[in-house]
Amino acid sequence: MKRFQKGMPASTTPDEDIFDLGALFAALWRGRASIIFVAGMAVLAGGIYAYVLATPMYNSTAVVMLNNREEQVVELGSVVGGLGSDSSVVNTEVEVLKSRVLLGKVVDELGLVEDPEFNGSLRPPSQFTRFKRFVKRVILPSADFSPPSPAIQREATINALLGSLTITNIPKSLVFNVTAQSEDREKSARIADALVDLYILNQLEVKFEATEQATTWLTERVTDLQVALEEAESEVKDFRASTPLVSPEALEGLEIQVKDTRDRIAGMEAAQEAAQARVTALEAAETPQQKVEATNDLQLQRMLPRVDEPAIAQSFKARFGQLAARAQAELTRNTSQLAALRNSLAELERQTEQQSQDLITLQQLSREAEASRLLYEYFLSRLKETSAQQGIQQADSRTISPAVVPTGPAEPRKSLIMIASAMLGLILGAAFVLFREARSNTLRTAEQLESTTGYATIGQLPMIKASRRKDAISYLKERPSSAAAEAVRNLRTSVMLSNVDTPPKVIMTCSALPGEGKTTVAMSLTLNFASMGKKVLLIEGDIRRRVFGQYLTTEQTDGVVAVLTGTKSFDEVVTHDELFGADVLIGDKGQSNAADIFSSVRFAELLKELRSRYDIIIVDTPPVLVVPDARVIAQHVDATVFVVKWDQTQKDQVIGALREFESVGKPVSGLVLNQISPRGMKRYGYGNNYGPYSAYGAKYYLN
């Protein structure tokens, strides 16, 4: 059982941040009637839209497949190849089907610009459109409302056609579903077929244009290459005619001659050196012996022993001179031959260099001519292949299933709309209930009242259908076994048991604001105590409004103020009311402030005196948040009954009023939830859970 600390609202407890799922479902369950009502209205609205307002729309689907097989009529390399089968190609073809160029062709072929379904400018303007035009005319008198230009209408028609198309690729395949939607079933099939046919035709046109462009370009290239080839061959011919015979063999022969000449020069240089050394040695020889050694001649060697003889000396000299002259002649001859060989070598090297340069030039010209020939032959063959391909191109797609005229509308999907409407209604109903619960700042149950304030609820009083308080009291008196009368008895019992050791004699009723039923509660308690045989006094403590006189059959005008001021005695002003069966001390107007009057010692003494004369004294006080009178009177009473009007008094108002009593050290004894409406409780989803007079106790009551 939950315990409440007096004066401490439950909102200060540390559990307030915990999300209570049970409370959420309880709120939804209580508001089930509202949720069902909102869901029913949503279903009704959805049904009206689906079956009455919505325009039937028909879907027709044409199926097209990408043909990625390269079927060649002739075994030639294609200038324009076929499509692949990867995801990028598939996605590209989907976008091609949605392209504005292709859709523009469909619009032109089917004349959709003249169709009001796709050209909105042909439809009569709606009321909203007329209103907007009227506002624009008022704001901008010079605004132009003439029909859009044909180009703009065509673009708008293309946009409308694009919005009516759905192009999807079947997963893991090269098949596309092209679905067209229209108000006319036959028109939807025509649109789908026209789009697919123009898509395939567009592929053929693209390939034909590509082949034609390739043929034109190749023809120009072949012509240019032919001219270049002829020029290159002419240059080779002219070069051969302008130069001696140039060939690798001739160049090789010249290189052999150069090598032989170089070898001969090397040998001649060695012989020249030997001859030069011999001449030098002969010129250096002075004595006969040296001359013999220098010449190494046999005759001179035989003459050497007899060189002293004149004849021999003359012969020796002559022989030596011959040998010296012969050596000098040989040196001269070698020098001449060496110079001639060197000149010949220079000429051969020059010829070899020239032949090499000419051969390189000839080879370069020949290669250029050969390259031009090969390029010319290649382009010529490609030109022939491309020319052969014209007229045999195949589209990359083909229709595998033309569009069929639908037998029934695809939209609106009535069952789906009804389900969606029901779901939306349930969501909106639940949101409304939760929003109402979240925004509700009033109190509807005793549990809410206790959790909000921290005070115990000692009574729950139903609403009594009566136009006057007197009629309500008459109802309680005439029907003592009614649920309302039992509720008052429960309140009386709770008040008397609020202090078991010292039951209260002076009881005060109060509320936060006017109109919460505190006066009726005070009168009801008075009637109930009096019916028990108690001697009861009812005091009108709200001397500012003074409403008791309107409901009592008395002509007395003086009351509590006259007693407190000493103008009249208590016995002179107190009246006995037969309806209550109790004495009543009404309020009267005084010169002093009401709070000051009740703060006087005389009031305290009066209550003290009355305690001895009456069993129960009930004081009805003004609203707490309006005037301070109730807090002043609370200082002299034994129990304070705080009345809260069901589903009207705000939580912060109740808490603020209770805080006023706590500020003066006189917390209330208990709370009363007043004027509870059973129908309202059911409407809010609380069912029969509205106190001791609820439906489960109907057999005990005589209403």
CATH C-level label of the domain at 454-700 = Alpha Beta
- 3D shape: elongated
Flag low-confidence runs. Answer: 1-6, 8-16, 69-77
Strand percentage, roughly?
5-15%
Number of strands: 12
Helicity, in percent?
55-70%
Side-by-side strand order of the widest sheet: 5-12-11-6-10-7-9-8
Distance between the termini: 32 Å
- Helix segment tally: 23
Question: Mind explaining what this structure looks like?
Answer:
With 703 residues, this protein is of the alpha/beta class. Among the domains are: 20-50 and 413-438, no CATH class; 248-389; 454-700, 3-Layer(aba) Sandwich (Rossmann fold). It is 56% helix and 10% strand. The protein contains 23 helices and 12 strands. α4 crosses α6 (150-164) and α7 runs antiparallel to α11. The radius of gyration is 65 Å and the shape is elongated. Mean pLDDT is 83; it is low at 1-6, 8-16 and 69-77.
List the helices and strands and how they pair.
Elements: H1 21-30, H2 32-53, E1 58-66, H3 87-97, H4 100-110, H5 127-139, H6 150-164, E2 165-169, E3 175-182, H7 185-242, H8 248-284, H9 288-295, H10 298-303, H11 310-389, E4 397-401, H12 414-439, H13 446-453, E5 457-462, H14 469-478, H15 483-496, E6 506-511, H16 518-531, E7 536-540, H17 560-565, H18 570-573, E8 575-577, E9 582-585, H19 594-598, H20 601-613, E10 616-620, H21 629-633, E11 639-645, H22 651-663, E12 670-676, H23 678-683
Parallel strand pairs: 5-12, 6-10, 6-11, 7-9, 7-10, 11-12
Antiparallel strand pairs: 1-3, 1-4, 2-3, 8-9
Helix pairs in contact: 2-12, 4-6, 4-7, 7-11, 8-9, 8-11, 9-11, 14-16, 15-16
